[in-house]
Amino acid sequence: MNNAFENAMTQLDQAANIMNLNKDIYAVLKQSDRVLIVSIPVKMDSGEVKVFTGYRSQYNNAMGPYKGGIRYHWNVSIDEVKALSFWMMIKCATVNIPMGGGKGGIIVNPKELSIGELERLSRGYIQKIWREIGSDKDVPAPDVYTTPQIMGWMRDEYEKLVGHSDPGVITGKAIPNGGSEGRETATAQGGVYVVKELAKKLGLNPSETKVAVQGMGNVGGFMAKILHEEGYDIVAISDSKGGIYSENLDLNAVFAHKEATGSVQNLEGTKNVTNEELLELPVDILVPAALENQIHKDNVDKILAKAIVEMANGPVTPEADEILKQKNVPVVPDVLANAGGVTVSCFEWEQNNKNEHWTEAEVFAKLEPMMVQAFNEVWETKEKYNVAMRVAAFVKAIERVAAKMKI
Ligand code: GLU
């Protein structure tokens, strides 16, 4: 398994070489500003106390308060959290929002906890990190397996501890709790704006563009739905248990089947595929929207897609990236493709700070030009230096961060 932080540092090195990055700035960017490691004792329903480990990495705040989600997953590690916080720094700077990079996580399988245990764990995490967060300091949000309800418990716990209201301390909240319209679908919607720009560059016509989506969570599920509404041809989709493939996939039937059986597989008229096989299907655009390290040196030669749009964080390893670049397969990197989520988080924070509430139409009217501009800046930088889009995004982002750091 690739070490996520090493991957992130390899990507930093590639960009630093291309742009001749000042060595002092480079030295600072090789480290996270601060990493908190906390133990969270939770009284389980059985009466027994279990101690969970949590992290929060505050990578860099040159552009604004640290920003990034909190992940609940059994594979969370300090290296993964650090890598994800570094990518958040790059992501926020790629779309040019006034936010730095942060990320948190707890080593836990949330599916094994009762609702009460989950609440106590979430409040316990805030009890350990509250001094280091705040709307002007570090603003967490949801990530893998964390929800608006969890954000609500965390906001409440934080406000009890500081003794005053601070709705912008956390984003991805439910709408009645200060959440933004459109936040739920923002990551997917941002990805769709990116796909549309990419299709223009590649001369692809939506109705003739076959798309495979790996993942059916908040990102993959909405992405498939919105792309379908935009006229794209979704031919394969999967959840954590596996996927299905059909040249005539009926997406509504897929969602109904998943709702009824808990899985997408075994739907009449479709072929079951594993999550690995889904990546190797003959499609135009492949959208990995689940977890990291999905496309690596051992399967990259089997990838038939004409382009990849990374909606998960870190789904393509650096070795695979290199090979895809040689094969002229554009990879729209996570830091650009899935930046719609954090951009609308930033809008949520802005609305909270100004005590405003924008309509969904207002939110997407602001999001679209930002995604389109970021895509085109990255595309131009890629052409200028003849590098992969990821390197181009890193160059653009690090230029912005470095300019702030210098001042
Ligand atoms: N977890 C999301 C990401 O990786 C969103 C972060 C946020 O909204 O702050 O981009």
Automatic annotation (TrEMBL):
<dbReference type="Pfam" id="PF00208">
    <property type="entry name" value="ELFV_dehydrog"/>
</dbReference>
<dbReference type="InterPro" id="IPR006095">
    <property type="entry name" value="Glu/Leu/Phe/Val/Trp_DH"/>
</dbReference>
<feature type="binding site">
    <location>
        <position position="218"/>
    </location>
    <ligand>
        <name>NAD(+)</name>
    </ligand>
</feature>
<feature type="active site" description="Proton donor">
    <location>
        <position position="103"/>
    </location>
</feature>
<feature type="binding site">
    <location>
        <position position="345"/>
    </location>
    <ligand>
        <name>substrate</name>
    </ligand>
</feature>
<comment type="similarity">
    <text>Belongs to the Glu/Leu/Phe/Val dehydrogenases family.</text>
</comment>
<feature type="site" description="Important for catalysis">
    <location>
        <position position="143"/>
    </location>
</feature>
<feature type="binding site">
    <location>
        <position position="67"/>
    </location>
    <ligand>
        <name>substrate</name>
    </ligand>
</feature>
<dbReference type="GO" id="GO:0004352">
    <property type="term" value="F:glutamate dehydrogenase (NAD+) activity"/>
</dbReference>
<dbReference type="InterPro" id="IPR014362">
    <property type="entry name" value="Glu_DH"/>
</dbReference>
<feature type="domain" description="Glutamate/phenylalanine/leucine/valine/L-tryptophan dehydrogenase C-terminal">
    <location>
        <begin position="180"/>
        <end position="407"/>
    </location>
</feature>
<dbReference type="InterPro" id="IPR006096">
    <property type="entry name" value="Glu/Leu/Phe/Val/Trp_DH_C"/>
</dbReference>
<keyword id="KW-0560">Oxidoreductase</keyword>
<dbReference type="GO" id="GO:0000166">
    <property type="term" value="F:nucleotide binding"/>
</dbReference>
<dbReference type="InterPro" id="IPR046346">
    <property type="entry name" value="Aminoacid_DH-like_N_sf"/>
</dbReference>
<feature type="binding site">
    <location>
        <position position="91"/>
    </location>
    <ligand>
        <name>substrate</name>
    </ligand>
</feature>
<keyword id="KW-0547">Nucleotide-binding</keyword>
<dbReference type="InterPro" id="IPR033922">
    <property type="entry name" value="NAD_bind_Glu_DH"/>
</dbReference>
<dbReference type="InterPro" id="IPR036291">
    <property type="entry name" value="NAD(P)-bd_dom_sf"/>
</dbReference>
<feature type="binding site">
    <location>
        <position position="187"/>
    </location>
    <ligand>
        <name>NAD(+)</name>
    </ligand>
</feature>
<protein>
    <recommendedName>
        <fullName>Glutamate dehydrogenase</fullName>
    </recommendedName>
</protein>
<dbReference type="GO" id="GO:0006538">
    <property type="term" value="P:L-glutamate catabolic process"/>
</dbReference>
<dbReference type="Pfam" id="PF02812">
    <property type="entry name" value="ELFV_dehydrog_N"/>
</dbReference>
<dbReference type="InterPro" id="IPR006097">
    <property type="entry name" value="Glu/Leu/Phe/Val/Trp_DH_dimer"/>
</dbReference>
<dbReference type="InterPro" id="IPR033524">
    <property type="entry name" value="Glu/Leu/Phe/Val_DH_AS"/>
</dbReference>
<keyword id="KW-0520">NAD</keyword>
